[in-house]
Design a protein that fits this description.
228 residues; mainly alpha; Proton glutamate symport protein; 80% helix; globular
């Protein structure tokens, strides 16, 4: 049985168990249902934290090696340069289509009430802060302190720094470039092993997260997942 099938089974079983607790177990306010949720919640959060743990350094390592190798190939290979330009165009078009089609689809098929809170397992939602002026908004993406941005999980800032760093690596001496790309490739390989370990525990983590979400929001959780 593949990992994907096991995760889907764990998701369905977790949702079913959580909904059953919400409907017939007296909810999560107290009693034995609350005790089950109190045990499942830290298990799910621990697994989710383990999944998030290697993501920032993995993203950085993969981007640096990929950009450095692609930029080096583009300077010596015309086809590589065309491929990079084509990828950039396709990504831009895909982002534009998503920005145009996404709101229309959400208007035609709105998110069920409480769906976001159901998936997040939250009791309430905080207000979304206003977006500042365009110049200030764009300047916010510049990673003044890349290490701080990484520690705070600011993925866009980390990606921007990785892109700049990757192009810079492609401009240094070949022997030093090979050393850096070899280091980051080894780092990415090691982090992928860590991700594999965490994914091996995915059915347990997904079951715990789904149980908590189902117990807190009942059938609204199933509706939220169906909408997603």
């Amino acid at each position: 049985m593949s990992l994907t099938v096991r995760i889907l089974i764990a998701l369905v079983l977790g949702l079913g168990s959580g909904i059953a607790l919400a409907e017939w177990g007296g909810g999560v306010a107290g009693g034995w249902a609350g005790d089950i949720v109190a045990v499942a919640q830290p298990i799910g959060k621990a697994w989710l934290g383990g999944l998030q743990m290697p993501l920032i350094p993995l993203i950085f390592a993969l981007l640096v090696t990929g950009i450095a190798q692609a930029a080096t190939s583009a300077r010596t290979n015309f086809m590589a340069g065309r491929a990079i330009a084509l990828f950039a165009i396709l990504l831009t078009v895909a982002a534009a289509v998503a920005a145009l089609i996404g709101p229309l689809m959400l208007h035609l098929w709105p998110v069920p009430p409480g769906a976001v809170g159901a998936l997040a397992g939250a009791d309430g939602l905080s207000e979304v802060p206003d977006v500042g002026p365009s110049a200030e908004w764009l300047l916010g993406f510049i990673p003044i302190n890349p290490i701080k941005s990484a520690s705070e999980g600011q993925v866009v800032a980390v990606v921007l720094f990785a892109l700049i760093f990757g192009f810079a690596v492609a401009r240094i001496a070949p022997d030093r470039r090979a050393q850096l790309t070899g280091f980051f490739q080894a780092l990415a390989d090691a982090l992928l092993v860590v991700v594999g370990w965490v994914l091996w525990l995915a059915p347990i983590g997904v079951f715990a997260l789904a149980l908590v979400a189902g117990a807190r929001s009942g059938l609204a959780t199933a509706g939220a997942l169906l909408h997603y």
